[in-house]
Structure formats: C-alpha cells, structure tokens
Amino acid sequence: ASLPTVPERNRPEQARQWAEPPPPVPRPPERVAQIAWWAPDQWATLLAPYLMGTAQTAYRGISTEDAKDYPGVKAAILDALDVSPETFRQRFRGLTYGMGARPRLIAQELRDLCKRWLQPNRRGPEELLEQIILEQFLNILPSRGRAWVSLTGHNSP
To answer: Are 54 and 80 in contact (CB under 8 A)?
Structure first.
C-alpha cells in the first residue's frame, strides 16, 4: 500500500510557517498532526516513519489493518512503553518548579499531566472524585495500611 497523498495545504513544510516555536518538552503526535493539518484518518500512516526504538517495534508488531487506526496504534505503543495513567500521576506529583522556569509552561505541563492521569474524557465526575480521594487516602494511611490495601486489592476508602 502506498502512502496517502497529502494535499498541498496539508504538507508539513507548508504548515511550519504558522506553527509556534517548539516548547521545551516534545509535543504529543496529535498536536503535530493538527498543526500540520493532517486528516485524523491519516495520522497513523503519516507518523509511522518517525517512530524509533520501542515505539517502532510495537508498530511493526501490529497487523497492517490495525496499523491504520491511530487510537489503536497509540494504545499499542503506550502499552509497549509502559505508559499508563500511573506514569502521568507520578510525573504530575513529581513536577518541580526549577530556576528560570516559565510559570505558564509549568501550569500547562501540570494541566496536561493531570488530564493524562485522570482521563476526564473517559471517566465521569464521580469516578474522578473517587480516584483523587483514594490517592489521598492511601497517602495518609500508615505503611501497614497501604500494604494491606495493596495486598487485598481494595480500591476505595
């Protein structure tokens, strides 16, 4: 199968002139694809050549048909990289304000990490509330209590 033809106005080199300067952290592929005006049904195909290492290996392990589905490709790559909501929770909780940091960038980073941790687009307000309460509950428990919760699999206070 050949790569889809990208209309003149959708070519990355045409879109770069309108793109803002790159932030200090890498952009998610969705943001790059949106800036380049790529059609969402072409994202997986157009981003595939830029994958490296574990992400590339995960992509190569997907069937040809599944490799056309961006959400499926993204899920397979994140799984291979062991990136989960817990990863983003840890990054959210561990983010520090370094010397010379820009307040708006730090605030945006916190917002992005929080969204990726809590996944508000996939869960209702009640689930989000339970998640935050559970985390705080586990934080204030003595270590024996945390160990018991871990062993028994209880996931609510």
So the answer is: yes
Host domain of residue 99: 84-121
Tell me if 76 sits within 8 A of 57, measured CB to CB: no
Q: List the Cα angle 119/88/147 in 5-degree steps.
A: 100
Judge if 27 and 67 occupy the same domain: yes
pLDDT in tens, 66-91: 888 888 888 888 888 877 888 888 88
- The 3-state DSSP composition of the chain as helix, strand, coil percent (nearest 5) reads 65, 0, 35
Cβ contacts of 82 within 8 Å, gap of 6 or more: none
Q: Is residue 52 part of a domain?
A: yes
* Per-residue pLDDT at 126: 92
Question: How far, CA to CA in Å, does 75 sit from each of 39, 78, 126?
Answer: 19, 5, 25
pTM above 0.90, yes or no: no
Beta carbons of 29 and 35 less than 8 angstroms apart = no
Report if residue 1 sits inside a domain: no
- The mean per-residue pLDDT over the stretch 27-37 comes to 77
Contact 44, 68 (CB under 8 A): yes
What are the Cα distances from residue 119, in Å, to 28, 113, 131?
Answer: 15, 10, 11
